[in-house]
Specification:
The protein is of the alpha/beta class. Helices cover about 30% and strands about 15% of the residues. The chain is built from 8 helices and 11 strands. The strands form 2 sheets. A 7-stranded mixed β-sheet has the order 3-2-1-4-9-6-10, with helices on both faces. A 4-stranded mixed β-sheet has the order 5-11-7-8. β2, α2 and β3 form a beta-alpha-beta unit.
Length: about 260
């Protein structure tokens, strides 16, 4: 699987996590059976990151793009939606994905996603995720980690268990289409799990309008995109393989801040 028709652009937004970013870049570099990959790192601190000692072995494997402004002003999801939309407009490759700087992928991640897209003529495909604690140990899924309101988190946890998204004690999050279509449906797909046909994603676009209820419920731009996909009958499938290594402790589940502390 090679050639211009199968090229994939990987977009990574980064701020101040050079160790994690090195792990992210290494995972992309280790892909097997995948087409040509173009990995772009976009950051307001691009030069500082490029020169960081932790990235010495990896900084030449990616393209660096400087972003204007200051990172993490207020809630992160509306801003990330705008950043993703802007970056998407510059993508030339036929396939695109977003990989956060604190996550990593298994060596067959892209090959398995592309095989599904091409085999079934889909607009997009996604994987499952292996959820890890920040230290790399397996997360036991004794609770729902992405909401700090205990009552809401417990409700979401019970729903996920009821519909098989979560199996207590198992670190795999089985994202994708689950349960009946209703307001209480908490199914989603994490942004890092997707591989998209670029033009189809451009036509759908990202929703950067977030209500106070969206922010309170920790609705992410990936949750909104998943709902748009369902509303527009986008053709997508799931590999049902946990090829994304998802590390807790990022923006979506920090208890006290909306993003990492930025050092000058």
């Amino acid at each position: 699987m090679s050639g211009a028709a199968a090229d994939i652009c990987i977009l990574t937004f980064a701020v101040d996590r050079p160790r994690e970013l090195a792990r992210c870049i290494a995972g992309v570099a280790a892909q097997v059976g995948a087409p040509r990959l173009r990995h772009r790192v976009l950051s307001e601190r691009a030069e500082a990151l490029r020169g960081d000692p932790y990235l010495a072995a990896w900084h030449d494997l990616v393209e660096w793009q400087a972003l204007d402004g200051a990172p993490f002003q207020g809630a992160s999801s509306p801003r990330l939606a705008r950043l993703r939309d802007a970056a998407l407009r510059e993508v030339e490759e036929l396939l695109v994905c977003f990989l956060d700087d604190d996550n990593a992928i298994e060596p067959d991640h892209f090959a398995s996603l592309l095989e599904l897209i091409e085999g079934r003529q889909l607009d997009a495909a996604h994987s499952w995720r292996l959820v890890l604690n920040p230290d790399g140990s397996l997360f036991s899924f004794s609770h729902y980690p992405w909401h700090d309101d205990v009552e809401i988190a417990d409700k979401m946890y019970r729903w996920c268990v009821d519909y098989g998204t979560i199996i207590p004690g198992d670190p795999v999050m089985r994202d994708g289409v689950r349960g009946p279509a209703a307001e209480t449906n908490y199914a989603t797909v994490d942004m890092n799990e997707w591989l998209f046909r670029t033009e189809r994603l451009r036509r759908i676009g990202f929703d950067a309008e977030f209500s106070s209820a969206d922010l309170h419920n920790r609705t992410g731009e990936d949750d909104k995109l998943y709902r748009r996909f369902l509303a527009h009958a986008v053709r997508f499938g799931c590999t049902e393989r946990p090829t994304l290594r998802y590390y807790l402790g990022g923006v979506s589940n920090l208890a006290l801040t909306s993003g990492p502390t930025v050092d000058a």
